[in-house]
Amino acid sequence: RAKQRNRGEINYFTREMSVEIQERVMLLQALRQAFDNERLFMVYQPQVSLVTRKAIGLEALIRWRDDDGKFIAPDRFIPLAEHSGLIVNIGEWVMRVACHQQARLARAGYGYLRMAINVSVAQFRHPRFPYMLKRAIEDSGCDPACIELEITESMAMVEADFLLQTLDKLKESGITVAVDDFGTGFSSLSYLQRLKVDRLKIDRAFVNEITDSERGAKIPEMVIQLSHKLGLKVIAEGVEDLAQADVLQNLGCHEAQGYYFGRPMEPSALMDWLAAQKD
Ligand code: C2E
Ligand code: MG
Ligand code: MG
Ligand code: MG
């Protein structure tokens, strides 16, 4: 009887999962098609200096608008792309588009703007990743010193030894590295001693609570102090109002990014935004 019950449970799980798997398979198929049909595009969100409150960089963020004009969030499709390996091709395309955008900005007089590009573990693991990045930089003619890779904390922890070698090699060309979503990865901090990271990026979950209470500012404060002690730069993401920006600045944070300063924008809107902040 026990055996039978077990079998029943297995069937139950299988049926439940198959719906989920089916949905994922369909979404992945749609993603492949969207990628092939050039339905993916990049937007760019300003990163500002908290001192001057002017742009010092941009983060490249991917967008997918389906055939009905509906947006599908990267938090939904990036994990799928990661599991299927499609992220390697998508990620290469992202790097090429973002590098070209950096070069285009330089030609328009904004060559000082850094371009931050999100990189997944699955991409980084690919043996041709350094080559893909090098090609993207060379083909676009952008300044490698303006290219920043955003890696996640969990990746920095799990892949430390492997990362170390790849990053060292990449960094010879002048690119910089930021640890994204810092503080959310439950990781030990020991990797910070080994990896040559340049910047910590305070997760927006922490920024969100910064003006709620004295306690809410403690974690950002700790991350900012940690970055100072380690000689790293620090940027806060998800800044949505002036009060948050001011608290962060008072805590010694160098840079910020968030809807308060600018939304992720398509290139034409970005050019207008940059022109407007000049005066
Ligand atoms: P992320 O790298 O941490 O990117 C920051 C996310 O916060 C973006 O969401 C951005 O639109 C959002 N954001 C920025 N300012 C604010 C704010 O003030 N308030 C709020 N509520 N949100 C804000 P997005 O574009 O939906 O991207 C989500 C995640 O998907 C990214 O998190 C990143 O992990 C991943 N992703 C996006 N583009 C790419 C890509 O080209 N390649 C890879 N591998 N991952 C990407
Ligand atoms: Mg990021
Ligand atoms: Mg982030
Ligand atoms: Mg995030």
UniProtKB/TrEMBL annotation:
Residues 24-278 form the EAL domain. It comes from the Bacteria. This is EAL domain-containing protein.
